[in-house]
């Protein structure tokens, strides 16, 4: 069957989908935990690098990025119950822009969900090495061990996966809550949070300017503010494992972004304000929350505090492995990727091959960098270039999803929408604008540009595969069938 865009659909028997079944389990709280857990590691570290531009710059950048994510999440809250498929971003773009638009959007998310866990497990390994005093050469063993454990937990049934997600997310939030309660009575905001002066110099007495780098500092801080919200958009990938996606998806997404905005506000205010810490020092820290705990309770309990800090990393690692499996599963079930990757486990009905293959690819990239560049240089590339590649993929997918929302509002008004975004098309437009500006400032950094070149190479290989083979062997998955039926 030939369709627009030069794609053809292969005939499959009912057994094809029988071997690719998912199990419904998630309710609103499970979905909330999936969204918050995916992001929460960014509240433990990563965001703080933007403080080099001054606390006020980071505040305004965070507000701008929060507005972008509000526009995005309200759009997703409308789209996900209207198109309740595992494909999520790919599904939205497929219905709005055809198979090529869906595929390019799916590729962007694939970059994000394959590489983000790799970066997180690198930081987990660094923490664990410090806690247990293992040699640097053992780092790859920590990576392998955490991948084996958490891929295994994700394979062993959606019920177990969501229970683990809820537990680690609550523990990570409890850790943050303890810090907020401990810091609040002791903060000295003007003395410590405002200790960055023009040019990034340290002001020993604090009380510096609100915007020491001017408007340019706000724009430069945008990519770092993204870490306070990155990956909330993965929640719609659980649509086919939600008990009632038409009822639960929108509340799950919106409660998740509300939780993250509250947490981001508190961590941005309190962490730099702790006496003995300050914005200038945190801007260079690899573990800002741990530095705050040390200032409050002393360095003598550093190892115990480090274990607490690992909770946030584990929460995001576990939940993004879940997302990676569903994202690869949906593209392969529809034939964009090799269809064998969409097979689900005979007992647990989880996309085990998608999670295993995606994790093997991530580990192979990490090991190749570690062995070819050496431990020090390899670590810098894993923690920098791979991270930036993931952010680039995310920003591109946000633009495509917001555009999909706009096009579906215009061209497919007949689609039943259990929830309608009160922000509407203007909210989606604002999302596109802020994402484009953020993307521009990511590209202004040489490290980001290097990552973009690798993303471009992955796109070239994947597009070539799709043009030569994949587009001739698509399958009428739920996403494809919905898009074709609506187009007709």
Account of the protein in words:
The chain is mainly α and 488 residues long. It has one domain (2-487): Amino acid/polyamine transporter I, CATH 1.20.1740.10. Helices cover 68% and strands 1% of the residues. It has a two-stranded antiparallel sheet. Strand 1 and strand 2 form a beta hairpin. Helix 4 packs across helix 5, helix 4 (89-132) runs antiparallel to helix 14 (375-411) and helix 14 (375-411) crosses helix 16. The model has no long low-confidence stretch (mean pLDDT 91). This is Amino acid permease. One of its GO terms (cellular component) is plasma membrane.
- Integer average pLDDT: 91
**CATH C-level:** Mainly Alpha
Under CATH, the topology is which?
A: Amino acid/polyamine transporter I
User: Could you state the oligomeric state of the chains shown?
Assistant: single chain
Helix content: 55-70%
Q: What structural class do helix, strand and pairing data support?
A: mainly alpha
Q: C-alpha Rg, in Å?
A: 22 Å
Question: What are the salient characteristics of this protein?
Answer:
single chain; 488 residues; mainly alpha; two-stranded antiparallel sheet; 17 helices; 2 strands
